[in-house]
Amino acid sequence: MVRAPAQRPTPRISVNDLAQFMVSSDTARMGIIRRAKTPPAAPIIRYRDVRPVVTAYLADPLRTVNHIVAAEAMFDQRASDPAESPLRQDDARQSIEVLHALQQMQNSLGAFDFHAAPPDQPKINLAGVEVSIRAELLVHGVARGGAHQIGGAVLRLTQDVGDSDAARDKRREMGLYVATMASRHIGDHFAGTRTVSNRLCMSIDVQHGEVFIAPPAVTRRMADMENACRFIAAMWESA
Q1: SS3 breakdown of the chain: % helix, strand, coil, rounded to 5?
Q2: Highest taxon of the source (predicted)?
Q3: For 19, which of 5, 37, 174, 184 could close a Cys bridge (C-beta 3.0–4.6 Å)?
Q4: Statement: residue 25 has pLDDT above 70
C-alpha cells in the first residue's frame, strides 16, 4: 500500500505581523516567519477582555460611557486582586489605559458609522500564505451620489511606546498596510450590495490615538504584500 505524501502545512501569518514584516529588516523578517510558524504559547491573550468593550462602545450610536465605566471598575479590581497572576494584573492595567485612550479619540472617530462585525471571519490567501485578519467593526457610509458604501476597522492594541520620528513613521506604514488589507478583506467577504470605500477602511491604533485610512489607490501596497507573502512561502520550510 502506497501512502500519500504528507500534506505540507499552509504558511500563515496575521495581518499585523505581515505589516510588521513589511517594515522590518531582513534579519527581523526571518524572526517574524519563525514566530508565525511556531507561535509561543502565551499564558493569556493580551487585551482579550478589553477588545469587546472597545468595539461595543464604537458600535453604539450614542457612544454611551456606561460600559466603559463598568469595564474600568472591573479591570481596576482585577489589577489590585492578589489572587490574580502578575500577568493578568498587568493586562488589566494596560486595558484601563486602552479605555482612557479610546475616550480621547472622539475627534478622529466620531464621524464614522461603526457596526458590529461577525466574530468568525474567513482568512485571505495571498500568494500561497494564509493571512488572518479580523475587522472588529464594519463601517457604513454614503457616497455623494447616494450609493451605500462599506469599509472595515481593524484594532491595533500594543504596548509599543516608541515616540521617535522613526517609530512614528513605522507605525504609520504598518497602519496603512493593515488598512489596505482591510479593504481587500471587506471587498472579498462583506461588501454585499454596498461598494467598498477605502476611506472607510482603517487601522485604529488606540494607545497612540491614531487612525490610518487606506490610501485611495492600494494597488502598489497590495502588490508589495503579495511579494512579501511569496518570500514567506518560499522560506516557510527552512525557517
Answers
A1: 45, 15, 40
A2: Bacteria
A3: 174
A4: yes
pLDDT band at 131 (very low <50, low <70, confident <90, very high): very high
* Whether the Cβ atoms of residue 159 and residue 94 lie closer than 8 Å to each other: yes
**183 vs 15, 92, 141, 214, 215, CA distance in Å?**
12, 32, 14, 7, 10
Q: What is the mean pLDDT of residues 38-62?
A: 89
Lookup: cell for 11: 504558511
What SS3 class is residue 209? coil
Phi, psi of 82 (to 5 degrees): -65, -15
**Cβ proximity of 178 and 23 under 8 Å:** no
DSSP H or E segment with residue 179: helix 165-189
**Quick count: other Cβ atoms within 10 Å of Cβ 26?**
7
pTM of the model: 0.91
| Cross-strand partners of 203 | 154, 212
| 209 grid coordinates | 490615538
Lookup: cell for 25: 529588516
CB atoms within 10 A of CB 127: 16
